[in-house]
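Hi R.,

Here's the input for the magnesium ion complex you asked about:
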Amino acid sequence: MIVCKNDSELAAMRVSGRIAARVLQRLAAAVAPGLTTRELDELARELIRAAGATSAFLGYRGAPGAVPFPGAICVSVNEEVIHGIPGPRRIQAGDLVSIDVGVQFEGFIGDTATTVMVGAVAPEWELLAATTRHALEAGIAAARAGAHLSDVSHAVEQAVMAGNCRVVREFVGHGVGRELHEEPQVPNYGRPGHGPVLKPGMTFCIEPMVNLGGAAVEILADRWTVVTRDRRASAHFEHTIAVGPADAEVLTRA
Ligand code: MG
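And here is the predicted structure with magnesium ion in place:
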């Protein structure tokens, strides 16, 4: 069941969303050649703590047999799609670095991601990042009260296809609120006019994960890191939104 948030819950989600947005903005600005993804995670921990929040990802339980997520953020470089564990990997010029931030503040979650181009990247990677960002915006524009949920999915998919890239199908966006993952699931593909009708107060994350090559992905032996099967590049952008009386309100816009 999709629970609509009331006004005080939406107010709380605006705060957690703003915290997530600011943390992500600071992290994106800090990305530079030579930095390890663990160092980026250490900065994230400082920023999240300074905001009085906690990471919604640290300690998150994943697949059976996987360790609880050990990072405060996910950092996914180049062929890594999502759920990259911060570690010794050193960011290089020309990399495409996806950063996913989830924070909890006073009981509510804000969840947002961006993909940073480190210096000059290959032109087709630039196009991939632009397409993914555009697909997120197309999804947000479709998330209007009275629309069907799959209208959002369809809008994302159309934008990805227009950019001649491929949508990852195994991982999807999600409802969000007191929990990181609530109903509904928000796929990045689908026919329009299906699923629940959007109502004011619904809050969910739209998060296109988009590949330059094939759509197929696999999970590394760490049981977290999702990579493209063909090891070509992938990008990820995400916002937490609230369906409003008409247009959606983006809660994680910096
Ligand atoms: Mg998410």
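One thing worth noting: DSSP finds four helices and 15 strands in the chain.

Cheers,
M.
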